[in-house]
Amino acid sequence: MGLDFVDPALEASVRHTLAVVEEELRVGVKSADPFVTEAARHLVDAGGKRFRPLLVAIGAHFGDPRAPLVVPAAVVMELTHLATLYHDDVMDEAAVRRGAPSANSRWTNSVAILVGDYLFARAADIAAELGPEAVRLQARTFARLVHGQIAETVGPRDHDPVAHYLDVIAEKTGSLIATSARFGGMFGGATPEHTEALAGYGETIGVAFQLSDDLLDIASDSAQSGKTPGTDLREGVPTLPVLYALASDDSDAASTRLREILSAGPVTDDALHAEALGLLRESPALKRARETVRTYAEDARSRLAPLPEGSPRRALESLCDFIADRTS
Question: Is 215 part of any domain?
Answer without folding.
Answer: no
